[in-house]
Amino acid sequence: MPLRKPRSASVGGLPSRMPRRLVQLHVALALYGVGAAFQIRSELGLDPWDAFHQGLAIRAGVRIGTMVILVGLVALLLWIPLRQRPGIGTAINVVLVGVSINIGMAVLPPVNPLPWQIVLLFAGILTSGMASGMSVAAGLGPGPRDGLMTGFAERVGWSIRTTRTCLELVVLALGFILGGTVGIGTVAFAILVGPVTQFSLHVFAINPPEARPLGGGESFERGI
What we know:
single chain, globular
């Protein structure tokens, strides 16, 4: 079935919406960093990639946001043999998420009573899920880890779902071995972030329905 053409810039097409897309992307990535900081401070368990980032940061003696940036840069280097093409949002993602995490960690104090830890955990999952949907809806390029996932999927011939599952299991195991926080929060993130992100995609969609490819699908990163 042929795809419908997007509207032109003169009638509200995608080019004329670039300022909103850029603003939405920056807000989304900043919020994603804040959501990650919430979840880290809860100490109840991180998503696979952040457990990996935290474990590496502990070993290297650097802040976790700094490690997020470094891992993002390494992931981008791996895009070269995988023949993935970054977008403007990819470069912004590499820096802004890590910086936001460091700021969030500096502002948020550690919490000890379990009820407050649970509040922070769910606030982190909600914020991260909403931010992921906003980022994907902006449509300015995948994050470095998502590009790694799609590149591997194309090379080995696996589905995105299978590749993502395998990749996240590997980084989760490495994160646990390195000392990252893995717990009930890890499970809660895996269960809840998908529905929250899907809801966010609908709320913050920029492309008009008639401009979207029919039957198309998009992936999102923890983010990230």
